[in-house]
Every structure is written in structure tokens, then in C-alpha cells.
Design brief:
The protein is α+β, with helices and mostly antiparallel strands and 199 residues long. The protein is 17% helix and 44% strand. The protein contains one helix and 14 strands; from the N terminus they run αββββββββββββββ. A hairpin with a 5-residue loop joins strand 9 and strand 10. The chain is elongated. The relative contact order is 0.05.
Length: 199
């Protein structure tokens, strides 16, 4: 009789343990099923980042010309940063003021030449910095009418030059340094005719 009771006790204990394990394992399985599936690829033509009120703060999509772009918006909804890729694969980054006017433009031409443009509040170019294909850096300064007045260049040979232009766009003065180290200064009249030169 004791032997039967002992065996019965073992059976009950084993059953209880099995039930506990079944509940635990079953619970893990239930939690695992609640995990959202992992998507390796999500495709769409436009994405928008919105806040709790539904206001858009960023957009990834295509502009009116069909170029892929990423735009960041201010609190008023105007674009302040735009990153895009041109038709030939050239990237560009534009920064806008609170009035929606472009003030800074950074781009990389299809030829591989980097370019930086700075605009005034009226949208006119005032400063341009670029690096030509041959590695020659240049800096151009423009007046309020968009005309180049100061041009600073460094040739691939290492010769620096500074050119000053009048309001008509004509070069009136040039200062440079030759490859042999000798300085050069040229002054011209309004018709760009040399009036004085040294040496």
C-alpha cells in the first residue's frame, strides 16, 4: 500500500512539474509571437517625419523635377535644409533662412569639382569658393548687383593672383607672384588698357 502511495505521489509531482514547464514554455512562445516582424526593406515614394500633432518636420521623397531630396522644415513649416541628388548624380546641400531664401549652397559637380556659394537676403550670389578639376582653388567676391569684383586664385603651378574688377566687370588691377618668386603688379584703365606695370 505504501508503495502504491509513493508511486502515486511521484506521478502527481511529475504532472505538476510538467504543467509548470508547459505554462512557462507556452508563455515564452506567446510573447515571441507578439514581436512585430522585422522588415528588411520598406519601399515608398515619400516619407514624412511628423510630431505628435501631425505637423511635418522632415520629408524624404522627390521634388517637382523628379530629383531625390531630403528636406528639413522649421517651426513655421518652411524648408531650412535641403539635401538632394541631381540628374547626373551630383549631390548638393542648400540652407535657407526663415524667409525661405537660399543663403548657402554646397555642391559637388558631376566633374568632381566642389563648389560653395553664399547668397545675400535678396538671393544674389556674393561669395563663391570652388576647387577646379586641376586642383586650383579660387575665391570670388560679388557686389550687390551680382558682378564679380574680387577674384583670388592659386594656379596648379603654385602662382597666386589677385584680380580687382570695377562695377562694369572690367579688370582694373592685378597682383600676382610669378613661379620664380618675383611679384607682379598691373594697373589698367576703364578699357582694361595697361597704364602701369611693375616690374
Amino acid at each position: 500500500m505504501r508503495r502504491n502511495l509513493s508511486e502515486l505521489t511521484k506521478v502527481l509531482v511529475a504532472g505538476a512539474v510538467g504543467a509548470v514547464l508547459t505554462n512557462l514554455l507556452g508563455g515564452v512562445g506567446v510573447f515571441a509571437q507578439k514581436r512585430p516582424p522585422h522588415r528588411k526593406l520598406l519601399r515608398a515614394e515619400r516619407f514624412e517625419l511628423v510630431d505628435q500633432s501631425g505637423k511635418s518636420h522632415a520629408a524624404l521623397g522627390f521634388d517637382l523635377e523628379g530629383r531625390a531630396s531630403l528636406a528639413l522644415f522649421s517651426k513655421t513649416g518652411s524648408s531650412v535644409v535641403t539635401l538632394m541628388v541631381g540628374e547626373e548624380g551630383e549631390p548638393s546641400l542648400d540652407l535657407y533662412d526663415q524667409g525661405g531664401k537660399a543663403r548657402v549652397a554646397l555642391s559637388l559637380l558631376a566633374s568632381g569639382e566642389p563648389n560653395l556659394d553664399l547668397y545675400d537676403k535678396d538671393g544674389k550670389t556674393r561669395v563663391t569658393v570652388n576647387l577646379l578639376a586641376g586642383g586650383e582653388p579660387s575665391l570670388d567676391l560679388y557686389d550687390k548687383d551680382g558682378k564679380a569684383r574680387v577674384m583670388l586664385n592659386l594656379l596648379a603651378s603654385g602662382e597666386p593672383s589677385l584680380n580687382l574688377h570695377d562695377e562694369e566687370g572690367k579688370r582694373r588691377a592685378a597682383l600676382g607672384l610669378r613661379s620664380d618668386g618675383e611679384p607682379l603688379l598691373v594697373l589698367a584703365d576703364k578699357n582694361e588698357m595697361v597704364q602701369w606695370k611693375a616690374p
